[in-house]
Amino acid sequence: MTTINWTKATETIDNAQTLLMVTHISPDGDAIGSLLGLANGLRERGKSPVLVVDGGVPGFLRFLPGSETVLAQLTEGEWDVMISLDSSDESRTGKAGDYGRAHSKTVINLDHHPTNTMFGHVHVVIPDAVSATEIVYHWLVEMNQPITLEVAMPLLTGLVTDTMGFRTSNVRSSTLEISQRLMEAGASLTEVMARTLGSTPYQTIQLWKQVLPSVELDGGVIHATIHQQDYKKIESKEQSSGGLVSFLLTANEAMVSTVFTEVEDGRVELSFRCKPGFDVATLALSLGGGGHVQASGATIPGTIEQVKLRVLPLLRQVVASGSLIIV
User: Fold this and answer.
1) pLDDT digits 0-9 by tens, 223-271
2) Residue 191: which of 19, 307, 61, 32 has the closest Cα?
3) Alpha-carbon Rg of the chain, whole angstroms?
4) CA-CA distance, 72 to 30, in Å (whole number)?
5) Cα separation of 290 and 260, whole Å?
6) Regarding the domain delimited by 202-320, which CATH topology (the fold level of the hierarchy) does it fall under?
């Protein structure tokens, strides 16, 4: 069990005159939820944090209170403290993180990924937490900061999305207890579910229409390929697969799923998911990425064909070394 010096972390925040907060590139519900949940709490504490994530907040998460304050890029500024949220390593924070670390005196690393590299000066890293928003919740409680609606809604969003609606194997009774506290503060579980897990833009469906013919299943590994031309065909500005990797894993015969996404600069983005009893985090870490045991990813150089030849045999090894656990 990770031990956190909550007092030191809180004193670092309280003593800071200027604050910067960043989260990881291609942000999900936990990234934006932890960013906004903590920021809204700190604003109520009298702070004025600057929030930024490369590319800004995805459209489906702009219903969260405070989302309009998040910047899409960072090109100027100096800060006493930078808080990095939900990022296992420095590269995951993108250009905003690079700039922020170079212009901040102290970096707080708040994360829940087992593959966290422990960068920064103050560590609030709890690998057993189901989401970064769970850690934010505990921190706010430790600093005696009230959980208001503006705080609760983003935090509940992170809990819901990172557990796929409380369906991952790391969900505990305490996870549901925290969710209850957030709902008591006014957060609507119905709205969060509807706007995240129960919401798919038509443009995403158009993308899947282009991509699903590429799906293959081999040795318990199911995978799909997204080329840049697929995004261009549907005129998509946000290059997201819309949860395709999770959808693929619903196939009964699949133990591991992955989506190979072509990136314009000669790299391939890899998204991994697996069923309980298997581990894709170790593979992601070996490829320079990171994440959770059941959900992780990496970005590596090469063409789609080159990356497939390298990664698919490794994914088959993941299947061979695991065993399905029915939970």
Assistant:
1) 999 999 999 998 876 778 888 999 999 999 999 999 999 997 899 999 9
2) 61
3) 19
4) 17
5) 16
6) Diaminopimelate Epimerase; Chain A, domain 1 (3.10.310)
